[in-house]
Design goal:
Number of strands: 0
Number of domains: 2
Radius of gyration: 25 Å
Shape: extended
Oligomer: single chain
Helix content: over 70%
Number of helices: 6
Distance between the termini: 54 Å
């Protein structure tokens, strides 16, 4: 299996080097360069490799997660805590935090979702800082 992967990676590397050489020059206008077959093929290779990496990481993560019941329990607690933070943030967001002239560009639900996102960021930042500072303070006074 590893030989096949190595051969495939070498083939992709050689193909990418050939496509790199075939890229349009910097003198070419952007709209013409965007239509280049070499560039489109390089993007396709990138999307393919990114998709393979995402699928492989998800498969191995889920396999490892379900093989360890303690890890699964801990993960469910973390996901539940995150959902709780999202719900609290949504409740705290008012949706009317914007000047009326800017509210005309969007609706109230969009402003509320943006406020929720900011609240999630602030709450998670506070939790992260507290999880770093509190043990350090306890460690400092325990000696």
């Amino acid at each position: 299996m590893q030989k096949i992967i190595k051969i495939a990676l070498i083939a992709i590397g050689v193909l990418s080097a050939i496509l790199w050489y075939m890229l349009p020059s910097s003198d070419m206008p952007v709209d013409e360069a965007a239509q280049s077959g070499a560039m489109n093929t390089m993007f396709m290779i990138t999307y393919l490799l990114l998709g393979i990496a995402v699928v492989a990481s998800l498969i191995f993560t889920l396999k490892n997660l379900f093989s360890n019941p303690q890890g699964l329990k801990k993960t469910l607690f973390v996901v539940g805590g995150f959902l709780l933070v999202v719900v609290i943030s949504y409740v705290l967001a008012s949706g009317t935090d914007v000047d009326p002239e800017y509210l005309a560009m969007s609706d109230e639900s969009t402003v509320k979702k943006i406020g929720m996102g900011l609240n999630v960021f602030f709450i998670l930042t506070i939790i992260a800082v507290a999880s770093l500072v509190i043990p350090a303070i306890k460690n400092m006074f325990s000696k």
